[in-house]
Design goal:
By secondary structure, the protein is mainly alpha-helical. The protein has one domain: PDCD5, DNA-binding domain (Helicase, Ruva Protein, domain 3), CATH 1.10.8. The chain has five helices and two strands, in the order ααααββα. A hairpin with an 8-residue loop joins β1 and β2. α2 crosses α3, α2 runs parallel beside α4 and α3 crosses α4.
Length: 127
């Protein structure tokens, strides 16, 4: 190889390393920005949620991240638009979860002497 070819290879390698170095700070800034945003969200939720509700939301994040994300977005929307002026409870989050998942409430009836509870509509049909 001649000196010109070596210089060309060195310059290409240097250019490639410079591009990679330029990409790394951008990726690190995005990660640090996401970490900062998550920290702000956690602080916000600790203010607007009761301790039990915060614990419930954390469990929900682990079990159902999509539903938890929708609940977080709804909470942020509600408080950003000043539609709520009290702390949310665990029951409020459960209601939001059920509404998002489309689960309807059921009334169960257990008669004396029976082991298995029945849905209210089934119990009324049997009587």
């Amino acid at each position: 190889m001649s000196d010109d070819e070596l210089e060309l290879i060195k310059s290409r390698k240097l250019l490639q390393m410079m591009k990679e170095a330029a990409k790394k700070p951008a990726v690190q800034q995005q990660k640090s920005g996401k970490d900062e945003l998550e920290g702000k969200k956690e602080h916000f939720f600790s203010i607007v949620l009761t301790a039990e509700a915060k614990h419930y939301l954390d469990r929900l994040k682990a079990e159902k991240p999509a539903v938890a994300g929708k609940i977080e977005d709804a909470i942020i929307y509600v408080f950003a638009n000043r539609l709520m002026n009290r702390k949310l409870t665990e029951i409020d989050l459960m209601r939001m979860e059920r509404k998002i998942e489309g689960v309807e409430p059921k009334i169960m009836v257990k008669k004396r002497g029976e082991d298995k509870p029945l849905d209210l509509s089934e119990a009324l049909k049997n009587d």
